[in-house]
Inverse folding.
C-alpha cells in the first residue's frame, strides 16, 4: 500500500511539475548587442479556432480577374492581379514563414510594399468588420484583399506596385514562436525585405505601409538598415512599448495588449506573453529597452501620419517623426481616426505620390510638400486641417503657466498667494477634481503640455494619477467626438515612479527613468511632473480650458475582435458579382481564448484613501501650456 501511495504521489508530482513548466515556458531573445533576455510564452489559438478566421493554407498561383470581388459589398478589382499564395520564405535561422504576393500580371519589375504583422494575410482575427460602423470605413472603400490595417493590393497593383502580406514568424502556419517587436523580430522583417528585392518581379526597391502594429514594425525594421528598404510610411504607431502603451506613466496596463494577444493564432509555436511581461517586469529593463525602437537610426525617407486623439499611438508617432535622423521626412496630422484616415482616397493618393517619388523615381514634385501639415481641433467649430508648418513642435510656441487654485478650482495666470488644498477619496466615484480657465481671446494651444503639481497621499505610500485637458463650451459643457467620447489630451503617473531623467527631460516634456521606486513617507508632500501627450486645440473667446486631476482607473478594452462573420469563396479567391460560388463562413466568436488560465488581468492600482493637491504660496502647482501666436 505504501509503495502504491509513493507511486501515486510521484505521478501527481510529475503532473504538477509538468503543469508548472507549461505555465512557465520562456524564450530567450537577444537585443541589438547580442545580450540575452528571457520572455514568457503562452498558448496561441489554433488555426482552426473560429475566432482567428484562418481561410486555409493553399500554395497556388491565381490571376484574380478585373471586376471580380473577394466578398459581397467590397470594391471590384480595377485590373487583373497575379496572386501567389502561401509562398515560403526561409529566414536566416532556417525558420520558414509564408506570404501572399499580389503583383501586376505583366511580370515587369516593380517596387513592392510590405505590410508586416501577425494579423493574417487578408482575412484574420482582427478586421474592421468587428469595429462599430467599421470606424467610418465603408466596405466598398477597399477590395478586401488587404490585411487588417494594411494597404489595399487592388489599388496598389493597379498603379504598378506589388503588395506583400506575410504571416510573420509564428503567425498562423508560419513556423516558430510568435514574437512582438524588438531586434529579433526586426531582423525577420529585414530578411523578408531582402528576399523581396531578390525576386525577378521586383525593381529592388521596397517600401513599408500600414498603421498601428504595421507602423510599430516600421520603426523597428527601418532602424536595422535593410539594404533595399527605400522608404517607410508610419501611419500612427507607438515607438516605445513600455512608456507609451504597456506601462505608461509607470502604471502597468495590460488590458489592451491582453485583448490583442487573445486573438493571435499559431499552428507550430507559442506566443510571446507580453501582457504577462507588463505585470511581471514593471520597471524599465533590458527586455523593455529592446521594445523601444531605435528611431534615431532611421535615415531613409518617411511619410509620417499622426493624430492627437489615439489613446495608444499619439505620443509615439510624434516622437518617431521628431527623433528619426532622416533628412527627407514629412509629418501630416489629421483630425479623424487612424483607419478612416488611412483608407480615405485623397490620402491614399497622397501616399502614392510619396512612394512614386522614392520607389519609382518619378519627378512629381513631392519634395515640395510642406514638411509638416498640421491639424488643430476646434470642437464645436471648424477644425484647421493641413496647415503648412516647418516643424513640430512649432518654433514660435510661447509657453505659459496657468496656476492651480484650490480656493475656487480655477486656473490663474499668476500664482495665488495663499496655500489651499483640494482632496478626494481615490476609491470613490467622485475621485477627481477639475480646474477651469476661461479664454479672454481666441487662443490656439498646440504641442506638449505638462502638469507640475504638489501632491500627497495621507492614507498610503503611493498614488496613481490621471490627468486630462479638454475644451468646454462657454456654458461649461464638454464637446464629444462622433463616438460620444470626450476630446482630451491625457497624462498619467504613478507617483513613486516620478524620478526624472534630467538629461532627456525638457521644460515642456518630462522624461522618466522608471528604474527606481520612491514611495511616499507619512505626511510627505512632493512635486510631480506629469507628461501630457501632444494636442492641438483652438479656443474661441469665452470657451473654457478644463484640467482634470484624479485617480487612475484601469481601462476596459473590449473591442469585439473575431465577432464578425466573414464569407469568402472556397476556391478561386475572388468571384464575379452575381456568381454563386461555394462559400465558407469565418468568425463569429469574440470570446474564444487559447487558455483561460493564462489570461492576464490588471494589477490593483496604488490608490488607497485620500489624494491631496496643494496650490498657492510655496506650492506652485501649474499647467504648462503651449500657446501658438498667429503667423506673421
Amino acid at each position: 500500500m505504501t509503495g502504491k501511495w509513493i507511486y501515486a504521489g510521484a505521478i501527481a508530482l510529475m503532473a504538477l511539475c509538468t503543469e508548472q513548466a507549461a505555465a512557465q515556458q520562456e524564450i530567450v531573445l537577444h537585443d541589438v548587442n547580442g545580450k540575452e533576455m528571457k520572455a514568457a510564452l503562452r498558448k496561441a489559438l489554433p488555426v482552426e479556432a473560429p475566432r482567428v478566421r484562418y481561410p486555409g493554407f493553399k500554395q497556388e498561383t491565381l490571376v484574380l480577374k478585373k471586376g471580380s470581388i473577394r466578398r459581397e459589398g467590397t470594391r471590384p478589382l480595377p485590373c487583373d492581379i497575379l496572386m501567389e499564395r502561401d509562398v515560403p520564405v526561409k529566414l536566416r535561422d532556417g525558420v520558414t514563414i509564408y506570404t501572399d504576393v499580389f503583383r501586376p500580371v505583366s511580370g515587369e519589375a516593380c517596387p513592392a510594399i510590405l505590410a508586416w504583422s501577425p494579423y493574417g494575410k487578408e482575412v484574420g482575427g482582427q478586421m474592421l468588420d468587428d469595429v462599430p460602423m467599421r470606424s467610418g470605413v465603408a466596405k466598398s472603400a477597399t477590395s478586401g484583399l488587404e490585411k487588417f490595417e494594411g494597404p489595399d493590393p487592388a489599388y496598389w497593383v493597379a498603379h504598378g506596385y506589388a503588395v506583400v502580406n506575410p504571416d510573420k514568424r509564428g503567425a498562423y502556419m508560419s513556423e516558430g514562436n510568435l514574437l512582438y517587436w524588438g531586434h529579433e523580430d526586426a531582423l525577420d522583417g529585414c530578411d523578408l525585405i531582402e528576399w523581396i528585392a531578390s525576386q525577378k518581379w521586383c525593381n529592388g526597391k521596397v517600401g513599408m505601409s500600414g498603421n498601428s502594429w504595421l507602423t510599430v514594425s516600421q520603426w523597428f525594421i527601418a532602424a536595422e538598415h535593410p539594404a533595399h528598404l527605400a522608404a517607410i510610411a508610419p501611419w500612427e504607431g507607438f515607438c516605445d512599448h513600455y512608456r507609451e502603451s504597456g506601462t505608461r506613466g509607470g502604471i502597468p496596463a495590460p488590458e489592451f495588449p491582453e485583448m490583442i494577444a487573445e486573438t493571435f493564432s499559431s499552428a507550430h509555436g507559442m506566443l510571446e506573453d507580453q501582457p504577462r511581461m507588463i505585470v511581471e517586469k514593471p520597471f524599465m529593463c533590458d527586455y523593455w529597452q529592446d521594445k523601444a525602437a531605435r528611431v534615431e537610426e532611421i535615415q531613409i525617407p518617411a511619410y509620417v501620419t499622426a493624430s492627437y486623439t489615439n489613446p495608444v499611438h499619439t505620443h509615439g508617432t510624434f516622437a518617431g517623426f521628431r527623433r528619426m535622423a532622416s533628412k527627407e521626412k514629412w509629418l501630416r496630422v489629421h483630425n479623424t481616426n487612424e483607419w478612416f484616415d488611412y483608407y480615405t482616397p485623397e490620402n491614399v493618393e497622397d501616399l502614392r505620390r510619396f512612394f512614386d517619388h522614392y520607389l519609382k523615381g518619378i519627378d512629381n514634385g513631392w519634395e515640395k510638400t510642406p514638411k509638416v501639415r498640421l491639424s488643430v481641433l476646434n470642437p464645436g467649430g471648424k477644425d484647421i486641417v493641413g496647415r503648412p508648418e516647418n516643424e513640430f513642435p512649432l518654433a514660435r510656441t510661447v509657453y505659459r503657466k496657468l496656476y492651480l487654485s484650490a480656493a475656487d478650482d480655477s486656473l490663474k495666470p499668476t500664482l495665488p498667494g495663499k496655500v489651499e488644498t483640494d482632496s478626494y477619496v481615490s476609491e470613490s466615484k467622485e475621485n477627481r477634481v477639475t480646474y477651469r480657465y476661461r479664454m479672454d481671446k481666441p487662443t490656439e494651444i498646440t504641442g506638449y503640455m505638462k502638469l507640475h503639481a504638489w501632491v500627497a497621499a495621507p492614507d498610503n505610500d503611493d498614488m496613481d494619477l490621471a490627468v486630462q485637458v479638454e475644451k468646454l463650451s462657454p456654458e461649461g459643457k464638454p464637446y464629444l467626438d462622433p463616438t460620444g467620447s470626450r476630446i482630451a489630451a491625457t497624462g498619467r503617473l504613478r507617483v513613486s515612479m516620478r524620478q526624472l531623467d534630467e538629461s532627456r527631460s525638457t521644460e515642456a516634456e518630462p522624461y522618466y527613468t522608471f528604474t527606481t521606486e520612491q514611495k511616499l513617507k507619512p505626511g510627505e508632500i512632493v512635486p510631480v511632473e506629469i507628461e501630457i501627450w501632444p494636442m492641438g486645440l483652438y479656443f474661441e473667446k469665452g470657451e473654457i480650458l478644463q484640467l482634470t486631476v484624479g485617480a487612475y482607473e484601469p481601462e476596459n478594452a473590449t473591442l469585439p475582435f473575431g465577432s464578425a462573420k466573414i464569407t469568402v469563396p472556397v476556391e478561386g479567391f475572388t468571384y464575379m458579382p452575381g456568381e454563386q460560388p461555394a462559400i465558407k463562413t469565418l468568425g463569429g466568436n469574440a470570446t474564444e481564448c487559447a487558455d483561460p488560465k493564462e489570461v492576464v488581468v490588471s494589477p490593483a492600482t496604488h490608490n488607497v484613501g485620500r489624494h491631496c493637491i496643494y496650490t498657492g504660496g510655496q506650492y506652485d502647482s501649474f499647467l504648462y501650456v503651449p500657446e501658438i501666436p498667429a503667423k506673421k
